[in-house]
């Protein structure tokens, strides 16, 4: 299983699927609420909203009826947003050796491919 480069609280943009004018989410941006590495999916705020039928009497549902919630989207369909240009970018990892307290430690930093800045 590959490591995911998108983390919780990242700002991402949907890069594939139906366009916004056709009722889809392509081009929309949102914050990552949760990451599911075992299924390679992410839950993004305001993206991939679906209607669920909730039975009355369920805990936390109250009266029941229809509720609109976000559904997970595959990580390959979103891209991290570069904070400098506000456009989608790929992510690289920069590995550095840092000396602290006389010991050498390896530090990994996520870097935007588009601007070269740290994320």
From TrEMBL:
GO terms for cellular component: ribonucleoprotein complex; ribosome. SUPFAM superfamilies: Translation proteins SH3-like domain. Residues 93-104 have a biased composition (Basic and acidic residues). InterPro entries: Rib_uL2_dom2, Ribosomal_uL24, Ribosomal_uL24_C, Ribosomal_uL24_KOW, Translation_prot_SH3-like_sf. The keyword Membrane does not apply. GO terms for biological process: translation. It holds the Pfam family ribosomal_L24. Residues 87-119 are annotated as: Disordered. The keyword Ligase does not apply. Residues 47-118 form the Large ribosomal subunit protein uL24 C-terminal domain. One of its GO terms (molecular function) is rRNA binding. Keywords: Ribonucleoprotein, Ribosomal protein, RNA-binding, rRNA-binding. Belongs to the universal ribosomal protein uL24 family. One of the proteins that surrounds the polypeptide exit tunnel on the outside of the subunit. One of two assembly initiator proteins, it binds directly to the 5'-end of the 23S rRNA, where it nucleates assembly of the 50S subunit. Part of the 50S ribosomal subunit. HAMAP family: Ribosomal_uL24_B (MF_01326_B). This is Large ribosomal subunit protein uL24. The lineage of its organism: Bacteria, Bacillati, Actinomycetota, Actinomycetes, Micrococcales. The gene is rplX.
């Amino acid at each position: 299983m590959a490591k995911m480069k998108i983390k919780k609280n990242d700002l991402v943009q949907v890069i594939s699927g139906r366009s916004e004018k056709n009722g889809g989410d392509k081009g929309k941006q949102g914050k990552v609420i949760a990451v599911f590495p075992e299924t390679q999916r992410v839950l993004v705020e305001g993206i991939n909203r679906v209607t669920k039928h909730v039975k009355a009497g369920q805990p936390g549902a109250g009266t029941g009826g229809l509720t609109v919630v976000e559904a997970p989207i595959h990580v390959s369909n979103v891209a991290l947003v570069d904070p400098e240009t506000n456009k989608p970018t790929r992510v690289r990892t920069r590995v550095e050796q840092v000396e602290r307290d006389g010991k050498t430690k390896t530090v990994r930093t996520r870097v935007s491919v588009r601007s070269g800045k740290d994320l």
